[in-house]
Amino acid sequence: MLILSHVKEVTFLLNLSDVVSRVQSFQFTVDACASLAQSLAWLMAASDANTANGKVR
């Protein structure tokens, strides 16, 4: 019975580790998307500024 208890505990910890890994992966994806959106916004603003200054070729 003691072995079964340890197996359950190890299984729980492995599942918890998997959940933490998935959350970290998701957070990385969210951060990457936010960074991409920020870059696109910067590029659009730069493009708008060039258009306003008549620098479009």
Give a description of the structure.
- The chain has 57 residues and is mostly helical.
- It is 89% helix and 0% strand.
- The chain contains one helix and no strands.
- The protein is rod-shaped.
- The N and C termini lie far apart (78 Å).
- The model has no long low-confidence stretch (mean pLDDT 86).
Question: TL;DR?
Answer:
The protein is mainly alpha-helical. It has one helix spanning 2-52. It is rod-shaped, with a radius of gyration of 24 Å.
The beta-strand count equals: 0
N/C terminus separation: 78 Å
State the low-pLDDT regions, or none.
none
Tertiary shape: rod-shaped
Helix-and-strand structural type: mainly alpha
- The percentage helix is over 70%
In N-to-C order, the SSE pattern is H
Radius of gyration: 24 Å
Strand content: under 5%
Average residue-wise pLDDT: 86
Task: Count every helix, treating DSSP H or I runs of 4 or more residues as helices.
Answer: 1
Major sheet details = none
Write a concise keyword list for the protein shown above.
rod-shaped, single chain, 89% helix, mainly alpha, 57 residues
List the helices and strands and how they pair.
Layout: H1 2-52
